[in-house]
Amino acid sequence: MSEQREAVGVIGVGWVGLVTAVCFAELGHRVIARDIIPEKIESLSRGETTIHEPGLEELLRKNAERITFTTEMSILLDGARLLFVCVDTPPTYSGDADLSRVRSVVDDLPAGGGHALVMKSTVPAGTGNSIRRDLPDLAYVSCPEFLKEGTAVADFMHPDRVVVGADAGDEEAATAVAALYEPLGGEILRTDVASAEMIKLASNAFLATKISFINEIANVCEEVGADVSEVAAGMGLDQRIGSSFLRAGIGYGGSCFPKDVTALKMLAGNTGYHFQLLTAVIEVNELQKRRVVGKLEKHLGSLLGKRVALLGLAFKPDTDDMREASSLVLAARLQGEGAEVVAYDPVAAERAGELLGSVEMAGSALEALADADAAVLVTEWREFAELDWSDVAARMARPLIVDGRNFLDPGSLIDAGFTYEGIGRSIQAEPLKSAS
Ligand code: UGA
């Protein structure tokens, strides 16, 4: 690699790009990170992260001297040969991945610059080959991202595997990418580009399938008097199944699973193959978000005029990300039934407020729960487990809770006077004596 271009280049400083930039700096590399949004670059240059990700801001400040944030493509191209592309690929209306940001990055690259494009953005299989055809002088490596929001720094530093896909002629660039990840100790799998692209889509689709599967098992558990947590624990002990991603709840959300499952279904469809299983995975996920309404109606009758408190709004804890969060569908659904919805989230309230204009935002869990006819635990933030639920029961108009993540201890809640409903939990839900 050229002496002058020893820095790692990062294009797009969103979730993936920022974690990648900061973690490579932590590993001792010089990093040049480029984004088109000046305000973001200014804030990152001051050491302030633009997203909520545990541990990231500390690491950014610690390694500030190794990272150059810039809006200038020329600074990036002069200083780095390996360019990690981390721009987002949101869904289009039809569900295909929108590759316009990837395309505009590719259009900005000079012909014959000797750079290697390292694709971390999630793209449909075949994208790499088409970019490579358009820019034959460019080396192309697919290095899909497997970070989870909320644990992204730890995931980067301790990967299960790193996939490095390259086709004939690009082996040297692939070896340079693999070398960057070698100190982390995870298995490095070398493949061709199309297979690397498929590994990413197939992994997310499989995890989403596991979730929809366990959610359907939960729904059956409710009918037959079984407890889905015990069923999942028993299934997970089989090493062929594994225990992760078997937590039943009110559906998966976030910027990845909904988008990538649909994108894979569309990708298959565009080739003429109907991916039947994924159609069901998506449908089950949509229905699961709506089941909470039925659970509330079972106890409250009509929801018209009832005050319902949503605990947590982010698509999962330890993030302020609201993209495709189950809370959005749930809030709209409850309001559609005439309920008065009040919500609290310790971190995502600001982002959520922009999306949930007609929902009353409370400043604390207790404020949201005061005088509510029911509570719905939407996101499993730790602080909800630490609430004094006897005190909460006394403050609510009616101590009813739907635990959408099976996060709380039903026994304690029932002892505190609550009527408890989980997801797929066969629990004697009524308290011995009502607290109201
Ligand atoms: C997901 C993948 O887990 C990452 O490997 C991948 O890199 C990332 O997408 C991506 O493609 O960028 P993420 O969206 O951050 O990561 O979140 P997850 O922890 O996977 O959770 C996704 C959703 O599934 C959340 O709404 C969560 O509440 C739900 N979930 C997860 C369940 O309902 N049950 C489970 O057992 C696990």
Q: What small molecules does this complex bind?
A: uridine-5'-diphosphate-glucuronic acid
Tally of alpha and pi helices = 18
Using the coordinates above, name the CATH class of the largest domain. Alpha Beta
Structural class: alpha/beta
The CATH architecture of the largest domain would be: 3-Layer(aba) Sandwich
CATH topology heading of the largest domain: Rossmann fold
- Sheet with most strands: strand arrangement: 3-2-1-4-5-6
Residue share in helix: 40-55%
The major beta sheet can be summarized as: 6 strands, parallel
Parts with pLDDT < 50 across at least 5 consecutive residues: 432-436
Could you say how many structural domains there are in total? Answer: 2
Head-to-tail CA distance between termini: 72 Å
Could you tell me the strand content as a percent range? 5-15%
What would you say this structure looks like, in words?
The protein has 436 residues and is α/β, with parallel strands linked by helices. The chain has a six-stranded parallel β-sheet with strand order 3-2-1-4-5-6, with helices on both faces. A six-stranded parallel β-sheet has the order 11-10-9-12-13-14. Helix 12 packs across helix 13. The C terminus is likely disordered. The protein binds uridine-5'-diphosphate-glucuronic acid. The site of uridine-5'-diphosphate-glucuronic acid (UGA) has 21 residues, from helix 9 and helix 11.
